[in-house]
Design brief:
Helices cover 47% and strands 20% of the residues. By secondary structure, the protein is α/β, with parallel strands linked by helices. It has four domains: 96 residues, no CATH class; 46 residues; 125 residues, Ribonuclease H-like superfamily/Ribonuclease H (Nucleotidyltransferase, domain 5, 2-Layer Sandwich), CATH 3.30.420; 126 residues, no CATH class.
Length: 413
């Protein structure tokens, strides 16, 4: 009666509990056998084979916990000779992972747990070592990847951005569906050839249906998109444009700070130190009264920073224009002004914006943003910090899909 009750609770298709081998406060071991004759499915080729059993072997697999106890199933499997390769093969059991020595539902628990915790924490909770958690999780993610992401999902509005996975400029490229706000594809590197793989994966027909692509201005991504998604509107994302502008202003601050240090101008060094850089980068309308006073004092005593701030504010006026034509006029005037400013770094920025002017202006045609990409990048950086980095880039790409993409277990609820 007790075995029957446990059989009902476990709910193993076509199998029953034959014997309770041992039990303690922490674990219970159960022998499991098939309760009716069923076809022999070869674990190697997946085909049904007729014939006589050679022998039986016992395989131990861990299942979900039962009333706080770890459950180990001792499964009796038949062995027969496979006619395709002539070797002895065990039968496949639908609810049992072939080589992982765990049930499918236990692997599902590992996958769901590693979506909210590190492998170390998941292993501690489940009583597994880190390597076993890694193997189970990776196998589960690879299966889901083949099921949901091969071929890659097509998209209408997309964003492309890169994030580092290892120091020394090791990057991965992420393609985000702006409408779904999820990562739908990623690949190692940030060259044009990497993004080409995504476009080839979805095919020419789906490439022609892409309406807009938000980018960070990288030439590699632009050239790949122009060659493949010929109908797409390429938008140099406003967030990245302003970010590039702010980094140029900060570069001017650093140059002037170094000059002040060489000239031993302690008052200027204090005004332009690291703690004060946010005053230059912050939107002027959001400055506090104290910050505005500090900025006015700095601009009064340092001409390059004064010019840099004027150029920053005048460029931001481009995005306040009501239409593309007026924005184009404002942008061209700014490029001329920056080129004539006498600040080398702003002259270089003006040249870059000149070559990408149309991509900047495309924002007025389609106000798509890759801000979601930056939010996802923050999640990815958090994921990387939690794991103290990833040596296996393939696993890292899968974990991005698990935490930020279509392999997230919350989507299957």
């Amino acid at each position: 009666m007790r075995q029957y009750s446990i059989t009902r609770v476990l709910g193993l298709p076509e199998y029953k509990i034959e014997e309770i081998l041992s039990e303690s406060e922490s674990a219970i071991h159960l022998r499991v056998v098939a309760y009716k004759r069923k076809p022999f499915i070869c674990s190697a080729c997946g085909c049904e084979h007729d014939g006589v059993d050679h022998d039986r072997v016992e395989v131990v697999a861990e299942d979900r916990r039962l009333i706080g106890r770890r459950v180990y199933l001792h499964v009796m499997k038949r062995r027969r000779r496979c006619p395709k390769d002539g070797r002895m093969r065990v039968e496949a059991v639908a609810w049992l992972k072939p080589l992982a020595r765990v049930t499918d539902r236990f692997a599902e628990d590992v996958y769901r747990l590693t979506a909210i915790a590190t492998n170390v924490e998941a292993g501690w909770y489940l009583g597994l070592d880190d390597e076993k958690v890694y193997r189970i999780d990776r196998e589960r993610l690879e299966g889901l990847f083949k099921e949901r992401l091969e071929p890659p999902p097509a998209v209408v509005n997309m964003s492309v951005d890169e994030v580092s996975w290892l120091k020394y400029y090791r990057y991965v490229t992420n393609v985000i569906d702006v409408d779904l706000r999820k990562v739908i594809w990623n690949g190692r590197g940030r060259k044009a050839e990497v993004l080409d793989k995504y476009y080839r994966g979805i095919g020419k027909n789906n490439c022609g249906k892409i309406e807009s692509v938000a980018l960070d201005g990288a030439r590699t991504y632009i050239s790949s998109t122009e060659n493949n998604a010929t109908n797409a509107l390429i938008v140099y994302d406003k967030f990245h444009v302003v970010q590039r502008l702010n980094s140029t202003v900060d570069a001017v601050r650093k140059i002037e700070l170094n000059k002040a240090r060489k000239e031993e101008r302690g008052d200027l060094v204090e005004m332009m130190g690291c703690k004060q850089r946010f005053v230059l980068l912050k939107n002027k309308s959001k400055l506090t009264e104290k910050q505005s006073e500090h900025l006015n004092q700095l601009c009064a005593v340092n001409e390059p920073i004064y010019k840099a701030m004027l150029l920053k504010e005048s460029f931001l006026e481009v995005y306040t224009k009501p239409d593309e034509d007026s924005a184009k006029e404002c942008l061209n005037a700014w490029i001329t002004q920056a080129a004539a400013s006498g600040i080398k770094i702003f002259h270089e920025l003006a040249e870059k914006f000149k070559t990408k002017a149309q991509y900047i202006l495309n924002w007025f045609r389609k106000r798509i943003s890759s801000a979601i990409s930056e939010g996802i990048n923050n999640k990815i950086k958090r994921l990387k910090r939690m794991a103290y980095g990833y040596r296996d880039v393939g696993y890292f790409l899968l974990k991005i899909h698990q935490h930020c993409g279509l392999l997230n277990p919350r989507l299957s609820q």
